[in-house]
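Handout, page 2. Input:
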Amino acid sequence: MSGGAAGAPKPLPSSGPKSLREMPHPLATSSSEEMGPALTPSPDLLLPRSIADKDLSLPNGTPVDTSSPASSSSLLNRLQLDDDLEGETRDLFVTVDDPKKHVCTMETYITYRVTTKTTRAEFDLPEYSVRRRYQDFDWLRNKLEESQPTHLIPPLPEKFVVKGVVDRFSEEFVETRRKALDKFLKRITDHPVLSFNEHFNVFLTAKDLNAYKKQGMALLSKMGESVKYVTGGYKLRSRPLEFAAIGEYLDTFSLKLGTIDRIAQRIIKEQLEYLVELREYGPVYSTWGGLEVELSEPLEGVSACIGNCCTALEELSEDMTEDFLPVLREYILYSESMKNVLKKRDQVQAEYEAKLEAVALKKEDRPKVPTDVEKCQDRVECFNADLKADMERWQNNKRQDFRQLLMGMADKNIQYYEKCLTAWESIIPLLQDKPETK
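Output:
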């Protein structure tokens, strides 16, 4: 860890792939049986089971049950419990926590504690604890891309922020980044190939990662070397249909998420502007109550009610900023990473097609396929299998993440409106006419 000795750290408050024919078409709009479970919306997204089973009423006097907030919360807890149960078979656990600020002569930066617990034989010890900064995570991702070019590497949160708009040393920003870095490592840990990568092992265990970097150990696999040195002079005729469908799906998916992200940011901006107005609006009733003796109690009640609504709206905006937007941005970056892997696959296929065509043009009765052409064919098949398996894994993760995200968003909105409803209902007795005293 560079620069650690130059200044005392100031701790911040911690806050088996299937065949290509079996792969469902990502853009298909056929029946749920043809789409497969990976692309079929869960019924729980439409309405929580506990709510759907109840007899909801219309405004005609039919009894209505209003326990939906508790129902959605219980479902959210059930989803999280299911996720925890899946971890029982894992043999590698990694967490990122305890961010600390380091002030040195030349720079100021944040480090995070990376804790590893494992029973794998590749590790000398059952537990490790090291400190890493953002550029170390970036180094790890670059190494994974070099050594595992056929696989989808999880994205990192953006490194650069707009100065003057976001304080990258604020507690809120650091906590948001910590969560993203923790998710990044957990994605790698859950991957059946990436989790066994040597660079990942070093990242988790080396006390002095900089010393390892300086050794210049470019331990690229043969596949990595071959892809790295593809000149790009080959032109692909056309993508196979299944990969063309994936490319079209990713374009549409990233476009839709980008639109949702922009609109969500505008909504948050408008909520914050509305919050400023509410904070000025409420106290007016309180000062007015000082002039009206007979109305002072109800006016104070209205002022307090608006204050409670302010608190509820502030909590809702924070939830959207800290929980909703980061997931959208992660999957936008995820789709870009998948597109990059697709481009690498296209380069290898184009190289194979060009070499195969060159062999066919040779004027020999029975031309023998050169070894380099066979190796190139092997690379194409490897890319196809790995990319398809990673796409299927990504779809499963996406379905689970967005199911939990949307359920959480519904739960937070229900809580917000319930708090506002409770606040306004509390002042009704103060506004009702009282019988005159005789």
